[in-house]
């Protein structure tokens, strides 16, 4: 049986990165991809968009657009000062081979935000795979600390579903009633909380998403 119809890889990746509450996602793309993503975000919470676009044009498909993503990173860092900047390379820059990772490496000394890149060409995979791979990128940024015996993580949480904020609060209340604390939600926490995710004793995978990330953390 074929998989159910769903969006492209970039949509899933954006779900994961946007769930990091102090992360700004940059779509390295033409305006069409950006408009589609903004519509999806606007359906859930217009007060919390945190998605910008590198602004590729037709001529960039010929000459490359590494300068555009570099400018976008510098502007996002200067204007919003996020803890994390997630760069998502959509179809056009992926096809022409823009070296976004090279751009990020060249900017590390001049940008205060942590940066991560994920290739998100729609032809590469479906939305669920984009979420899985983005979650793995977040695992790579985690730091080992001191284990908390009564702390757990949620893995595979989606902040773009209806009542997600209320759901997370209620789940945390239920855990606290049992003497258990929520260490971090991947992804539904700030960047610092996610980096401390290894401090938890147990990962609770919700809904089947984020399995690969949970396996890596195990």
Summarize the structure.
Helices cover 44% and strands 19% of the residues. With 218 residues, the chain is an alpha/beta fold. Strand 5, helix 8 and strand 6 form a beta-alpha-beta unit.
Polypeptide structure, described:
- The chain is of the alpha/beta class and 218 residues long.
- Helix content is 44%, strand content 19%.
- It has ten helices and seven strands.
- The strands form two sheets. A four-stranded parallel sheet has the order 2-1-3-4, with helices on both faces. Strands 6-5-7 form a three-stranded parallel sheet, sandwiched between helices.
- Strand 1, helix 2 and strand 2 form a beta-alpha-beta unit.
- It is globular.
* Discrete helix count: 10
| Ends apart, CA distance between termini | 31 Å
How would you write the strand order of the largest sheet? Answer: 2-1-3-4
- Count every beta strand, where a strand is a DSSP E run of 2 or more residues: 7
Helix content: 40-55%
- The coarse overall form would be globular
Strand composition percent: 15-25%
What does the radius of gyration come to?
A: 17 Å
Uncertain stretches: none
Structural class: alpha/beta
Largest sheet: 4 strands, parallel
Features:
218 residues; alpha/beta; four-stranded parallel sheet; three-stranded parallel sheet
